[in-house]
Design a protein that fits this description.
The complex is a heterodimer of chains A (428) and B (186).
Chain A: H1 13-21, H2 24-33, E1 36-38, H3 47-66, H4 76-85, H5 90-117, H6 126-148, H7 153-164, H8 173-181, H9 188-219, E2 235-237, H10 238-263, H11 293-301, H12 305-317, H13 322-325, H14 337-357, H15 365-390, H16 400-405, H17 407-411
Helix pairs in contact in A: 3-5, 3-9, 3-10, 4-5, 5-6, 5-10, 6-7, 6-9, 11-12, 11-14, 11-15, 14-15
Chain B: H1 20-45, H2 51-54, E1 59-62, E2 71-76, E3 79-85, H3 88-96, E4 117-121, E5 144-148, E6 153-156, E7 161-163, E8 175-179, E9 182-185
Antiparallel strand pairs in B: 1-9, 2-3, 3-4, 5-6, 6-7, 8-9
Chain lengths: 428, 186
């Protein structure tokens, strides 16, 4: 072995030559081949991989759409209609991109919910979780700016309302808004910079996703029991066990995606966005896309401009400190009988908020939004800190293998795949 | 180092019986390949000229005002098309050339539909510049036709390449006379 070369395990001479000098094949083998993964994942653990697939779909469709889009106030709307009518398969690319955004949020909401239910945010995975919240914030910014690009009525007034949120900041708010706009209203400079940023941010998401996965591969995955694997009997190699399990999920995900794109492509959109932007007339009922509705409901629940904006921001930012708000040492809700019920109630509360965000700003919707807002924050700021001290959790299983296999794990019967060993699996 | 290649790792074990698993792997891979191809198709197709671009694929030209010896340039698919009302001398010169002198042998008769009109795409077959020779003041090259200033290709009065790096004659587009004084390109 020449000095300085990586000790590659690959025998194919071309792969070996590259791997000795730049061990990417060894890295893939280690991180996605033999990577020891808890053997008890359920299908909720598909959603990270689904989010990754979704991100790729968004970038690929987005790059091709950008080839036919014109970021100018007089041409943007028409260029989108040209994509729909004249560009070959343009309708498919645009509907896949627009509904892909909705799919992305569905997938990521389940991913976040899974992290909250099974305590994936707890030590030692706090940073992993916080990087996830950063990805979520970047996604929201990207989705918002993407929705502005078709320059319909909802695009324009969505942009106006959301950018005006920043005017609530004391002293510098109006200056910030002017700098966001590049003028004194949402206009061509705004559209230009939103297009630029809409193209940039997904690649920043790719970067943070890389960090998210890098952190994941240091701590290893959490699992439905929330207890750490103690050895090879508790894990499986990522490939083929979880590549196959993820593939099953991807097929189901693509089926749902296909139903949206091919049968109800405008179901999650707003008809008003097929009216070209008119800076002189606001649509009567203006709401954001469905994935922003819970936060929009919180915004409208507070009869004070700064207070509403602060609570809306706080509803996301509170996730950053979740690892320290939840004082229980037990990760999985399976072993927390009271908090588990309260978390399900919080989940229902989230859907009620989502529903309220889509209603007009009148009674009784405002009152319901206010109650739900209190519940939303009470769970984080009161329930979780207290429950860690008050609740008596159920006994945790000894190990993943015992919980999964029962007696067989201790008897040593049956083949135990070599999850923790560095050797690739032999061909069966 | 080379002698250690074969002894490493467990990949690439060649000898094993064909099993049901091999069949499953092959069919799965085949389905995946078809699926990826089907998904890639719309992306590649979207790069082709869109319908509004294709809709602009024909150009009508009124050649009535073009007098003997005059040439006009019209736009067809975003490219210049030369329409030249050739003089009898130019036509005679084009037809007197022996085929053995030509790099891309074509008779003048095969390159026109109706005398005295010569219609060619005004894009040099070397690397796409527009040859000079449309205006009376332009250099027309050594053969009285067109001269490409980029890399020095010379075209004759039938727009056939005679000198320089261009490999082919100027392209004759599909066109037809819609009346005595009007033609449609494309």
């Amino acid at each position: 072995m020449a000095s300085g070369l990586h000790d590659s395990q690959f025998t194919n001479p071309v792969i070996r030559w590259i791997d000795q000098r730049m061990p990417v094949f060894t890295m893939v083998q280690k991180e996605y081949g033999t990577f020891p993964t808890p053997r008890n994942f359920n299908y909720l653990w598909n959603f990270g991989a689904l989010a990754m697939v979704n991100l790729v779909i968004m970038i690929v469709t987005g790059v091709v759409l950008a080839m036919n889009y014109t970021p100018h106030v007089t041409m943007a709307f028409d260029s989108v209609e040209r994509i729909m009518r004249d560009v070959h398969f343009g309708w498919l690319l645009r509907y896949a991109h627009a509904n892909g955004a909705s799919m992305f949020f569905m997938v990521v909401y389940v991913h976040i919910w899974r992290g909250m239910y099974y305590g994936s945010f707890k030590a030692p995975r706090e940073l992993l979780w916080m990087l996830g919240v950063v990805i979520f914030l970047l996604m929201m910014a990207t989705a918002f700016m993407g929705y502005v690009l078709p320059w319909g009525q909802m695009s324009f007034w969505g942009a106006t309302v959301i950018t005006n949120l920043f005017s609530a900041i004391p002293l510098v708010g109006n200056t910030i808004v002017t700098f966001l706009w590049g003028g004194f209203s949402v206009d061509n400079p705004t559209l230009n910079r939103f297009f630029s940023l809409h193209y940039l941010l997904p690649f920043m998401i790719v970067g943070v996703v890389f960090l998210h996965i890098a952190a994941l591969h240091i701590t290893g995955s959490n699992n439905p029991l929330g207890i750490e694997p103690n050895g090879p009997q508790d894990t499986l190699p990522f490939h083929p066990y979880y590549t196959i399990k993820d593939s099953v999920g991807i097929v189901v995900y693509l089926m749902v995606f296909a139903v949206l794109v091919f049968f109800i492509p405008n179901y999650l959109g707003h008809a008003d966005n097929y009216i070209p932007a008119n800076p002189m007339a606001t649509p009567t009922h203006i709401v954001p896309e469905w994935y922003f509705l819970p936060y929009y409901a919180i915004l409208r629940a507070v009869p004070n401009k700064l207070g509403g904006v602060a609570l809306m921001g706080g509803s996301i930012l509170v996730l950053f400190v979740l690892p320290w708000l939840d004082t229980s040492k037990v990760r999985s809700m399976r072993f927390r009988p009271i908090t588990r019920v309260l978390f399900f109630l919080w989940t229902i509360n989230f859907f009620v908020l989502l529903s309220m965000g889509g209603k007009p700003a009148e009674q009784p919707y405002v009152l319901i939004s206010q109650i739900c807002t209190v519940i939303y924050f009470a769970y984080f700021l009161v329930v979780l800190p207290l429950m860690g001290r008050l609740e008596r959790p159920l006994p945790l299983p000894e190990s993943i293998a015992i919980a999964v296999l029962g007696k067989r794990a201790t008897l040593g019967a049956g083949p135990i795949p070599g999850g923790a060993t560095a050797k690739p699996m032999e061909k069966a | 180092m080379a002698e250690s290649l074969a002894s490493h790792g467990t990949h690439g074990d060649a000898s094993h019986d064909v099993t049901k698993r091999d069949f499953l792997k092959l069919t799965t891979a085949a389905f995946a390949a078809i699926g990826v191809g089907a998904m890639a198709w719309p992306f590649v197709a979207s790069l082709a000229p869109a319908r509004d671009v294709l809709a602009l694929s024909s150009t009508d030209v009124d050649v009535g005002p073009v007098t003997v010896g005059q040439a006009i340039t019209v736009v067809w698919r975003g490219k210049p098309v030369f329409v030249r009302h050739r003089t009898p001398e130019e036509i005679a010169a084009a037809r007197a050339v022996p085929m053995s002198d030509l790099r891309d042998p074509q008779t003048d008769q095969s390159r026109i539909i109706r005398d005295p009109w010569l219609v060619v795409v005004g894009v040099c077959t070397h690397l796409g510049c527009i040859p000079l020779g449309q205006k009376p003041t332009d250099p027309k090259g050594d053969f009285g036709g067109w001269f490409c200033p980029c890399h020095g290709s010379h075209y004759d009065t039938s727009a056939r390449v005679r000198k320089g790096p261009a490999p082919l004659n100027l392209l004759v587009p599909a066109y037809a006379f819609t009346s005595d004084r009007a033609l449609r390109i494309g």
